Structures
1.
Amino acid sequence: MSERRSQHLINRVQLVTAQVDDRTCLSKQKVNLHKGYCYTKRCLDALLSACGLIATSPIFAVVAIAIKIEDPAGPVFFSQMRIGTNGKQFRMYKFRSMATDAEARLEALIKQNEVEGAMFKMKDDPRITRVGRLIRKISVDELPQLWNVLNGSMSLVGPRPCLPREYAQYTEYDKQRLLVKPGCTGLWQVSGRNHVGFMDMVKLDIYYIQHRILWFDMKIMLRTVGVMIFPNAAY
């Protein structure tokens, strides 16, 4: 999605949330009322993630070999603690796209953060490997999260899970994006991704939570496939 279309969607979100309140307040009880939707979504998550892991196994093999060729000493997979539904921690998996000492080098790069709010993004992050830059561009680094979906810690569609250090900076308003299970993809990823700042990402997540139905989820998944083929500013 282009930056212009991303901004148009964000403007729509602002109009919708303004009808509720200047600072949207979602009801946790109301969010949890959609039990039929949640049950059906969980069944689809389990089925599609299992099929996805089988179907993408050749890609797993190719990416694993490429990572090992570039850095034989480093691991293929990267795991990290993330914050999920209602602030609960879980371990999220990805293909390793950074140098093995990436976490230790983060503090030195914090001042070069290119987005506002409780999120770190840097276009020319020196910690990213050559293979990592490619698999991030086409979002292949996210494929191991299908295991997170299968074990129930994530959904295929939902707000992106945040890091504990990011969660520590969240306001009560920001924490509303964690009222539902985090996802591998979501409205933010298909709406410009790194063109969209933190506050607008929160608005998109709240919009998704307010309007989530199976058709909306399917639409986001289809657009995610398009983003993987025609990358939208992922880095």
2.
Amino acid sequence: MDPLVHSQGVLMKVAILGTGHMGTAMALRLIETGHQVTVWNRRRDRLAPLGQAGAEIAGDLADAVVDAEVVITMLADGSAVRSVTTWLLSAMGPDAVWVQASTVGAAWADRLHRLAVEHGRTMLDAPVSGSTGPAHNGTLTWLVAGPQQAVDAAGPVLDALGTRILIVGPGQEASRLKLIVNTWMTAATVAMADALNASDRLGVPRESFLDVLSDGPLGMPYALAKAELMTAGDYTPGFPIELALKDIRLIEDAQNQVSPLVRELDRRLTSAVIAGHMHEDLAAVAAVD
């Protein structure tokens, strides 16, 4: 994978379809950096804050994408993305680039790409690594697969939202990589929850354990940030458990042989959902034995 750096300063017309936590953060960032942003969401009540921030609120999908140079889909899953593709691909301009940023897994990424080809449109398979904070700050990492010409065309928008663009391959390799990244991230969070709970049971101050990790080779910034949330009992969603579980099941579906660790992650997240933490941050796994 080679990182790519684009020149910044070019302002574009961007449509964002899906304004959940990530879509909203992306829209706000693009508005702040001067891009012309149009937003669409099934639940229109989620659009008002973006309208106040300067986004144009589309009446329907066709209105959202018809003049857009870049269309970003940031929806919950492959089924949700597929439900908008008929209008999206028919209404977007022939030179526009569809940046498919939703985490949909391998099979759905292939299916969506075929639909784009059938409609004569260009799709970048481009999920991101990072949650709402990096999206707000423009420090996401893009995992991108697709034609170089499309990467260049969408470059100013990708740059506004991220600090790294990793070119993974020419097809839909990025969606596959995203599942691997999210599995690693989920495993690290569950491991941190178990370590903190073990510290409590053994009478060792959590701070002592975290001091060992800090500033050393064992310190993973993401896991340390989750440790702070776990200790504070703050489960405000950045990456909700329901989405983490969706991704774990996608990687299970994509493999002929699933590791015992992945099956255990499925069990732990399912237990957290049953315990009522579905919409809370992944850190809430620490609240479930």
